[in-house]
Specification:
- Belongs to the peptidase M1 family.
- Its EC number is 3.4.11.2.
- β28 (about 490-495) and β29 (about 500-505) form a beta hairpin.
- The protein starts with a strand and ends with a helix.
- It is of the alpha+beta class.
- The strands form nine sheets. It has an eight-stranded mixed β-sheet with strand order 7-6-10-4-3-13-16-15, with no helix packed on it. The chain has a five-stranded mixed β-sheet with strand order 18-19-20-22-21, covered by helices on one side.
- The relative contact order is 0.07.
- The chain is about 40% helix and about 20% strand.
- The structure holds arginine and zinc ion.
Length: about 900
């Protein structure tokens, strides 16, 4: 395999640069085809730098026009240019100004890193290493500088000129040009740099901070879509208020701008004072966005805003520390959503994501610790491990320290590191020091990959009235980490008596138990509870208090007992999932058929009770109705996976449940009908969630009546949530009218790219052998936007990640299609290509025929020519 460059970067090699830059003045002349960047970098040698030490700046696809020091042009021998650097051979050993002029071509930038053009708008993406595609720089997060940016552009093409910080001047120039100056007083690393220039619409609002500072807020977007930004603005203001309330953190500039662009490699970016978003995470109106889309807009608006403190004010020393800002900020956005909505529902949703993405990553060839110690391509480490497992690690700290203890640690972290580039060690030390606890073992959550497997069994002795819990933990080897150590695992728990109420104990021995928290930090432990009058049922890992795989000795009856009586909603949900998983594993073993009718009945009865009365809101009830996903089941099986058997087993269980609950589902469906105007209020969204879950479950029965009901639901829908729910249910059931309705949907929304994504994604998920050919036809259409990441991911990403049966066709056709797609896209946008390729991380888990087919597709990608470093890195690790 040939790749662009071979190199591995190690954490142990971290060293500060001999020079640093503390002030940047940029003048950017934006013009179609070629933009010119004139940079003044204020350079200071670090103490101890030897005379004659060269200054090495990063660069990528830059055309250097001139270079000078303190105004004097440099001779040809004084510097050296390579494709990735500019070296000043013998810079002065004092403060000086390095002046460079480079030309770049944003219109040709299909990688969407650096300065590029999306739909007419010029914009930037610099994290992690995009700034070097704008100008020569120390493009690493530990160099913090203040920035002053002057932007010059044609006023007709770009009436809006935005950069980081506060506005500091603007005016007219000759030839129809104008300029704007932006000053960012907060020292920042280059990855937080941003500029936007274009002809954009906007909505404006304001927010007054607790200390009385008025902040001007704006969201910019394509003209005509302003009304779609109102919900995002509302979410922004709620985020700002929440961060003041919960963490005492106020905003620190006069303006906060958000820009929605349509070509963006991932979700959004927290550039200081100028967040740039994938438009799918800004736009939300009932006609085009589902309730899930609204949730995502709220979540990501909050996430990027929260980065202002966790990321921007305190940033990362190097990219190994990425989860210092990402894990922490995901934790903060999760908490925000929990406070704004239903906490149990949010927790269940987050755990579902963790299990279906992070656990899979952690159990395969791409496993890495939340803080890796080496990488070839940092872009490949914006992973669910860094983000979601990183958030779980922070959550465990909060669980063990309590809400106040956690807040104290956060306060100390900001007190110590505001304005600095910090490390995971700094973060953990703030909590250890503020709480006076030792976190030396805890920190290994950041350093060790793999999901710990925790097994708990129990034993009751009536004679002595003692109850024992025996715990063991073990983590399987992961690439580069053969031997694992024990983790500090906080297990929140309760004991439930025969009548369903909580049980206390007179004494517990054998390990650390603090209130309702077991701190399990050794390979094995045996707890003895005394004064237990009856055999209790234990509720373990309440709230999913640690990111582990738990197995217990509880019977299906015990689980159903928990489903009815546990005071912890997460574990009520989990108990039903556990029972369902047991049934499904047996069914898969039997080739896709249900084997134990009475267990299925017991599960259905418990579900009925949950829907009928049960504690929990409607959204919680909706979640209990959704059975474990095909991926969840594949994970539980582990090896020799046959996706078709899983698909059939799951279909059989859903059908059996639908048949048994039919009357109840119809009643609830009808009772929840709602003809009041659309609202995003909690009660309304939860109602839609449960009603649509009932419909989806009914469709699983496969009857003509259910299909007809769903079709009517689709046609009568007055919002996208209901329309998509019906369509999606019919598509996944491969109902006879599914193709016709997909066609109808496409015609209805042909002018709306974000809704078209829903069509692309659903079309790719049809569990039918014709799907692959239909996808190929869509891609071959000359009008298909081949360079837009959202379109590509919706179509091919959904196929590879959400259509397990067709992706893993035993003849290898699905695999080959995806690897050929990756090879093609890799030439234009390596990040999108590499991300799609990660769908193969499960290839070794398939049964032999599919495994061989997957391997052969991967091998031919390896031989297909030059791959980007991004794709080569993923491919190399996947095959290793
Ligand atoms: N920092 C951004 C965020 O939190 C994401 C940047 C992703 N960058 C990347 N190269 N994948 O959401
Ligand atoms: Zn983030």
């Amino acid at each position: 395999m040939r790749t662009e460059t071979e190199h591995t970067i190690y954490l142990k090699d971290y060293a500060p640069t001999p020079y640093f830059i503390d002030r940047v003045e940029l003048e950017v002349e934006i013009a179609p085809e070629k933009s010119v960047i004139h940079a003044l970098l204020h350079v200071v040698p670090r103490e101890g730098t030897e005379p004659g030490t060269p200054l090495v700046l990063d660069g990528d696809e830059l055309l250097l026009n001139s270079v000078a020091i303190d105004g004097a042009p440099l001779g040809l021998l004084a510097y050296e240019v390579t494709p990735s650097s500019l070296t000043i051979n013998e810079p002065p050993l004092r403060r000086f100004v390095l002046e460079t002029t480079v030309t770049i071509e944003p219109e040709k930038n299909t990688r969407l890193m650096g300065f590029y053009r999306s739909n007419g708008t010029w914009c930037t993406q610099c994290e992690p290493e995009g700034f070097r595609r704008i100008t020569y720089y120390l493009d690493r997060p530990d160099n913090l500088a203040t920035f002053n940016v002057t932007m010059i552009a044609d006023k007709a093409l770009a009436p809006v000129l935005l950069a980081n910080g506060n506005p500091a001047g603007s005016g007219e120039l000759e030839n129809g040009k104008h300029f704007a100056v932006w000053e960012d007083p907060h020292p920042k690393p280059s990855y937080l740099f941003a500029m936007v220039a274009g002809d954009l619409g906007a909505i404006h609002d304001s927010f007054t901070t607790t200390s009385g500072k008025e902040v001007a807020l704006a969201i910019y977007c394509e003209h005509g879509k302003e009304d779609r930004c109102l919900y995002a603005m509302d979410a922004l203001k709620r985020s700002m208020a929440w961060d003041e309330r919960r963490f005492g953190l106020e905003y620190d500039l006069d303006v906060f701008n958000i820009v929605a662009v349509s070509d963006f490699n991932f979700g959004a970016m927290e550039n200081k004072g100028l967040n740039i978003f994938n438009d799918r995470l800004v736009f939300a109106i009932p006609e085009t966005a589902t309730d899930a889309d609204y949730d995502n807009v709220e979540r990501v608006i909050a996430h990027e805003y929260f980065h202002n403190w966790t990321g921007d004010r305190v940033t990362c020393r190097d990219w190994f520390q990425l989860c210092l800002k990402e894990g922490l900020t995901v934790y903060r956005d999760q908490e925000f959503s929990s406070d704004e909505r239903s906490r149990p529902v949010k927790r269940i949703e987050d755990v579902r994501l963790l299990r279906s993405a992070q656990f899979v990553e952690d159990g395969g060839p791409l496993a890495h610790p939340p803080r890796p110690d080496h990488y070839r391509e940092i872009n490949n480490f914006y992973t669910t491990t860094v983000y979601e497992k990183g958030a779980e690690v922070v959550r465990m700290l909060a669980t063990m320290l309590g809400r106040e203890g956690f807040r104290k640690g956060m306060d100390l972290y900001f007190e110590r590191h505001d304005g600095q580039a910090a490390t995971i060690e700094d973060f953990v030390a703030a909590f250890a020091d503020s709480a006076g606890v030792n976190l030396d073992q805890f920190i290994h959550w950041y350093l060790q990959a793999g999901t710990p497997q925790v097994a708990i069994s129990d034993e009751y002795d009536a004679a002595s009235q003692t109850y024992k819990l025996k715990l063991t933990q073990k983590t399987d080897p992961t690439p580069g980490q053969p031997d694992k150590r024990a983790m500090v695992i906080p297990v929140r728990f309760g004991l439930i008596g025969p009548n369903g109420s909580p049980m206390g104990w007179s004494k517990v021995s054998g390990g650390k138990v603090e209130g309702d928290l077991i701190i399990f930090e050794t390979d094995a432990m045996e707890l003895t509870f005394e004064g237990i009058a009856n055999r209790p049922v234990p509720s373990l890992l309440r709230e999913f208090s640690a990111p582990v795989k738990l197995t217990t000795s509880l019977s299906a009856e015990d689980q159903l007992f928990l489903a009815r009586h546990d005071s912890d909603p997460f574990n009520r949900w989990q108990a039903l999932q556990t029972v369902a998983t047991g049934i499904l594993l047996d069914a898969v073993r039997a080739g896709g058929k249900l084997t134990d009718a009475s267990r299925v009945e017991a599960l259905a009865d418990a579900l009925r009770e949950t829907i009928e009365g049960g504690s929990g809101d409607d959204a919680f009830k909706a979640l209990t109705l959704s059975m474990p996903t095909e991926d969840n089941i594949a994970q539980a099986i582990g090896q020799n996976v046959d996706p078709l058997a899983i698909h059939e087993a799951r279909g059989a269980l859903r059908k059996a449940i639908a048949q048994r609950l039919q009357d109840r589902l119809v009643l609830t469906y009808n009772a929840l009908a709602d003809d009041s105007p659309f609202s995003t209020a909690q009660a309304a969204t939860q109602r839609r969630a449960l009603r649509n879950a009932c419909l989806t479950q009914l469709v699983a029965s496969g009857t003509d009546e259910a299909f007809a009901l769903a079709e009517a639901h689709y046609r009568g829908a007055t919002n996208m949530t209901d329309r998509m729910a019906a369509l999606s249910a019919l598509v996944h059931a491969n109902a006879p009218m599914a193709q016709a309705l997909l066609g109808d949907f496409r015609t209805l929304y042909t002018a709306d790219p974000l809704v078209l994504d829903k069509w692309l994604s659903l079309s790719a998920q049809v569990p039918d052998a014709g799907t692959l050919d239909r996808i190929k036809a869509i891609l071959a259409d000359p009008t298909f936007p081949r360079n837009n990441p959202n379109r590509l991911r919706s179509l091919v990403g959904s196929f590879a990640n959400a259509n397990p049966v067709q992706f893993a066709q035993p003849d290898g056709s699905g695999f080959r299609f995806v690897t050929e797609f990756v090879a093609d896209v890799d030439k234009r946008n390596p990040q999108v290509a590499a991300r799609v390729l990660t769908a193969f991380r499960i290839w070794r888990n398939y049964e032999p025929q599919r495994r061989a087919a997957a391997e052969s597709a991967l091998r031919s990608l390896e031989e297909s020519g030059t791959l980007s470093r991004n794709t080569a890195d993923i491919l190399g690790r996947t095959l290793a």
